[in-house]
């Protein structure tokens, strides 16, 4: 811009007349040159501002796209399609001796009564392959539902009972409209016959659509209609507990020492360099550390929330330390001086006065660190928390998986129904994260003091 | 389970110690707490800390060493069974013994020898636990008794407790050093074993990567090829694409938010970007694999380009979205830190806002911006889940963003997830890759911090 004015001025000098110009003439020429460029410069200004708006709009659009995709895909997973039908439990099938021995009851063939009931519903279906297709429209979990019913109430044997079992995932997808009848039969996972049977059941009023409680109460399963996130949620819970118990005291201890007590020497400087570097180490490297040190060297159990929590606590440690130090630093020195002046020792001063005042900031940092740990996947893959775990973990040493890993595992499954459940699991995970972050914001807003 | 019982007993006993110590201190001065050197609680803490810490230390060391010692003893006992077995078979046998001792299903018929070994194993484990309980509890009681006896009005218990607390805090700080040492040692140690099998030059400069070592010695290509150049190239390509998205968007967003936006817009836009930063990477990975990759493939089909369904473009673009908030928040800080006087000087000369930004603010903030971009690159290189879910597995050496490439992190995950032998070159290769990753991100961070620190003071 300076260039253009200068050039304009020198042009005038050389072109117009040989004698030097008056002050006024020079000013007018300069003004003209500035005016000439002004339009262009204002356009550039507007363009620049538009780039800024475009950048923010792009980020917002990505966020909206991300959330709408996930919510759009995940919402249907919260409903399920059930069938309600009657089954006759003949004593000779289930408990021939009549002794009600739990061992016999639990190993009895419950498939037979269900097949019989289905055969009665569709007497016209004959032939092996047709029958197989017919039985494939309800979930294989029906057998377990029936067994659990009989086990909890053996008196049902010999009666005609009504049971509610989920339909298979493909029929469920068809019912939700994700599989279209118009598409060619070879390209969809439900055949024309199965659709016809399903519609017959529907016209008899035997099909129910209800809230998918299985999704929240079951562990993992190979069958999408039986799979749930409860196992992963408990695993995440145990892992987070271990992470919190380990990382919070360690981080607060380290932060207090470095901020309040540490002398300025080489060791302190080295510790600080270490903490800053650890904050930037890729999370997968922590997984390698866990694998080499905790699993191979110390021989701790694979796939256990204990080890997962240990790895994640090492990973979140720098985050919490840095946040805690900032909170401690924000407490004004006058508080310390007053406490010391009243005769408190330095430890008393810190623990009785500085720490309580810094606590909201420390807790905010801890919650943010925990939210980070809750969403972390990569290091847990390294220590074997990717196993297919059906059972709900009962302690921190049981094999378990966590929410993000469950999401990763399901996202690999080819079934459409799993895609739906992956999105739903992401919604659950995100709502936890949003709650934690909201808590951190509230804590900061409500308790943080400005000195 | 008995571990937990022991742990809770230790903690409960230390609480008892606290109250006993406090009572004795008060009793020693007939209730006149003012005559004590320290406040009565400190005598309680004194006893409690002194009796818990040694016992807990013994507990921790014992329970971490216990497993491998018992394993070693049992393997020595069944040494005649394991003659001529490979390492894998021996570890399988150890597993069987452990499972048999827990009355679980095992991989083979339980022979009498194995059953006997399992019984001995269970017995030894029980003995070890009992011995640990006895040692811990007697240590606790002995120390408690000793410290309890020492309590008198002149005991400087506060000073003693404060020394312990300070020591504990130093230990907490040293965890950071221990973690770094742990990372470096585990990576170096395993990498050294890897480089014993594969020459470092082949690893660093080889252009063929196919780590599938054969199960049997006599199979074709049983060695596997460990040339990591395609992985480095793939990582670079994806990071470059990510930076192409994140750098302009993040930077422009930062400039807009710090220079143009009204407080109202800022109040909305900043949390928005923070949400983007808080989304777990596995969610981005799912988004990339499910939505973005098919979108790019269809787009390619429409214009007649052959786009792979695991294209570097999709993974890189989504990674770029993930890094936007990282770039923008760091650059925002840097731009805001440029002194106001420089802006005013520029306006005074008649510059427009955008001219001020591009010709004054950005040059002034350049070191900080370069630093934030370097940190973002290091973040992109280390990012795992997005590429695991959306990038390919095959190691192609290509610069075409429409093809599938693989990255260092993807290979670490594929090499280590699933069943593995710990000693094979295949699993050890993951540690060598991890070492490279660690070194590169460390260097980038050092350079970033150096650049920021070196040029910052000019404007302060």
The domain tally of chain B reads 2
Series of H and E elements of chain A: HHEHHHHHEHHEHHHHHHHHHH
- Largest interface between protein chains, with number of residues from each side: A-B, 89 and 92 residues
Give the low-pLDDT segments of chain A. 1-16
Strand fraction of chain B equals under 5%
Biggest beta sheet attributes of chain A: 3 strands, antiparallel
Q: What is the domain tally of chain A?
A: 2
CATH architecture of the largest domain in chain A: Orthogonal Bundle
End-to-end C-alpha gap of chain A: 45 Å
**Principal-axis shape of chain B:** flat
The CATH H-level superfamily of the largest domain in chain A is MetI-like
Strand content of chain A: under 5%
Oligomeric status: heterodimer
Please report the first level of CATH classification, the CATH class of the largest domain in chain B.
Mainly Alpha
The count of helical stretches of chain A stands at 19
Number of helices of chain B: 15
What does this protein look like?
- The complex is a heterodimer of chains A (451) and B (460).
- By secondary structure, chain A is mostly helical.
- Chain A has two domains: 79-225, no CATH class; 230-447, MetI-like fold (Orthogonal Bundle), CATH 1.10.3720.
- Chain A has helices at 2-15, 23-74, 91-94, 102-107, 111-121, 128-135, 142-152, 169-175, 192-203, 214-217, 230-261, 266-278, 283-297, 305-330, 333-341, 346-374, 378-382, 403-411, 416-447, and strands at 79-88, 160-166, 207-211.
- Chain A has a three-stranded antiparallel β-sheet.
- In chain A, helix 11 runs antiparallel to helix 16, helix 11 packs across helix 18 (403-411) and helix 13 crosses helix 14.
- The radius of gyration of chain A is 34 Å and the shape is flat.
- Chain B has helices at residues 2-28, 40-77, 87-101, 112-150, 157-197, 200-205, 229-260, 263-278, 281-303, 312-336, 340-348, 353-382, 385-390, 408-416, 425-456; strands at 209-210, 225-226.
- A two-stranded antiparallel ribbon of chain B has the order 1-2.
- In chain B, 40% of the residues are buried.
- The mean pLDDT of chain B is 85.
- The interface between A and B is large, with 89 and 92 residues.
